[in-house]
Amino acid sequence: MQELKRRKLNEQLSKYELKLMHYEDLYQTKINMFESKLIQISLNHEDTQSDILMTLLRCYLSHQTNRLIRQIRYKESFVHVKLVRQYRRHLLSKQQIVDVYPQIIVDVPKVSLNRLQLYYLSHFFYSIISTVHLLLYIHVLILFLFQGPNYIRSNQTFLHSYKHQEKHVQQEHKNIMNVITRYLIREHHIPLTATIIREFSRQLETSLRQQYITPLSYLNLYRTRKEFKLVKSIQYRLKKGNYILRETDKSGIFHIGNLVDYEKKAEAYREKTGAYIELDSNPLWSVFDKVVFLLNDLRSKKYILSWHLDKMMPKRDKVQLASLYFIPKPHKAGTPLRPTVSSMHMPTTGISKFLDK
Question: TM segments (predicted)?
């Protein structure tokens, strides 16, 4: 029975393809006839530019054809999504598969997020795999370059402008190349001017462009737009309900709490410990000027070399003041907060990293 259905389907597809070929030939014939008549008219009337008119006509027809194709494929994506959902429901009911994933922790009496939004937040961290070892990170990058990505993900940057996509590609390329080149220089003594590094850089940029700039399929475009709207709706409802969304301390899942409660707990922690105070003014540029003056003074007295100065000198366009934020600990009674200081971009970070080495 399946073979008969397959044969019938192939016959219908063959007939459909023959019809398409016939219509394509007819279309080309009509276009050629119209072009020949237009050329004859232009010969009799010198002010008629047949080549420009034909170019505009072909552009218009091509645009209309592509628009119709996009509409058809967009409708096909809806049908495909419905079929996939039906298949998954059938598979779950047939095999009795239970989907296990960590649930988001809601620590407020009534949250305005619906079931779909909570489901999305629960799956967010469940789908992320962190790679910490440098060799494994390089191995993953090499597999990505020469074998392609091991999964299909929605390209969220597709909804942004080309300028934003280009900036994202360049930043990603710079970060990866910094990791790779430092490792190759330190472990294998390969210079930056080596041909293999230039070739790797070119292939990496090509792969990143394919990943972030290449247009999506209509199914992935539908999914990307849907997730983009979902994230925006989550942000709107959290802001409207005066909620705060944070990653938990140990389990790595999301926690939804009340913003006022967070502020009270943070204030109580500062008063109890006295370890942190709230600044009245921003001392960032004062610290920046002192660090620059100190490094230049050390260099002028020849206590450090020029490459030492380059390594430790802070960048004016990248420095930031250290900030204090709190991470919830829902596994403990009362959901206390754990303080964390972010000082990655402080003016003294370069000195600290250099001394650690």
Answer: 124-146
296 inside domain = yes
Q: Are strands 243-247 and 254-258 parallel, antiparallel or unpaired?
A: antiparallel
The pLDDT tens digits for 243-299 are 888 888 776 678 888 889 988 998 898 888 888 888 888 899 999 999 999 999 999
- Residue appearing with tokens 């619906």: 114
Chosen domain end from 29, 62, 95 = 95
| Coil, strand or helix at 49 | coil
Asked, for residue 134, whether it belongs to a domain, the answer is no
Token couple for 11: 């016959």
22 within domain boundaries: yes
Q: How many residues does the chain have?
A: 357
Count of domains observed in the chain: 2
Task: Give pLDDT tens digits for 44-97.
Answer: 766 556 777 777 777 788 888 878 877 877 777 777 777 777 777 776 665 555
- For the residues of 94-150, what is the DSSP string, one character each? HHT-----PPPEE-SS-----HHHHHHHHHHHHT-----SHHHHHHHHHHHHHH--S
H and E: helices and strands count for the chain: 11, 5
182-189 long-range Cβ contacts below 8 angstroms, 24+ apart: 183/134, 183/138
Among the three residues 95, 110, 129, which one is the final residue of a domain in this structure? 95
Domain presence at residue 357:
yes
